[in-house]
Amino acid sequence: VTAYVSNTTISENNIYRAVTSAPYPLSMQGLAEGSTVTWSSSDDKIAKVSDDGVVTPVSVGDVTITATEEKLSGAKVQYTCTVHITNPVLSKTSVELAKDTTMDIFVSGTKGQANWTSDNPDIAMVSIYYSSNGINAVLRGVNEGSTVIHAYVDGIELKCIVTITNPHIIR
């Protein structure tokens, strides 16, 4: 008996994509010469996959994308990727915050991890912390003005407009 070791892999095994995200390309690496690949989805109502491995989210849920490699010998090998289609929602889309105060902000509707940024950290800073809900963020009012906080998650961008005020106490 002769055993052959395959170097074939699928580009991803587990991904999170939002319903509204752009189509996402999967690919195969290390295919044997002359092999062909057929792509399929376990549920086209959740995500579709094109003949060239591009996954298009349709509705919230989990789906298995399968790439079936057919070798010149006729042997078939399957590779899978679990795709989680989500509907991420930012807890705030606009907020007014006093200078030198903080407020929590988070993304719900996904188990994907958000990356957070501020257009102008001199006005409002965003820092992350870990909780049982995943990675959340804390906004801190630095200086008076307005800026935008961005959360990038599951292939989409969510925005929160932040206005920092400088209230004065009158006695």
Explained architecture:
This protein has 171 residues and is mainly β. The chain is built from no helices and 18 strands. The chain has strands spanning 9-10, 14-18, 24-25, 28-29, 36-41, 47-49, 54-57, 61-70, 76-86, 89-90, 94-98, 102-105, 107-108, 115-118, 124-131, 134-141, 145-153, 156-165. The strands form six sheets. Strands 2-9-8-5 form a four-stranded mixed sheet, with no helix packed on it. It is elongated and about 85 Å long.
Features of the shown structure:
171 residues; 4-stranded mixed β-sheet; mainly beta
Helix and strand element order: EEEEEEEEEEEEEEEEEE
Number of helices: 0
Strand order of the largest sheet: 2-9-8-5
Backbone CA Rg: 22 Å
Percentage of residues assigned to helices: under 10%
The overall strand count is 18
How is the main sheet built? 4 strands, mixed
Distance between the termini: 92 Å
Give the helix/strand class.
Answer: mainly beta
Strand coverage percent = over 45%
Stretches with pLDDT under 50, minimum 5 residues:
none
In short:
The protein is an all-beta fold. Helix content is about 0%, strand content about 55%.
What is the secondary structure topology, with strand pairs?
Layout: E1 9-10, E2 14-18, E3 24-25, E4 28-29, E5 36-41, E6 47-49, E7 54-57, E8 61-70, E9 76-86, E10 89-90, E11 94-98, E12 102-105, E13 107-108, E14 115-118, E15 124-131, E16 134-141, E17 145-153, E18 156-165
Parallel strand pairs: 2-9, 11-18
Antiparallel strand pairs: 1-4, 3-7, 5-8, 6-7, 8-9, 10-13, 12-16, 14-17, 15-16, 17-18
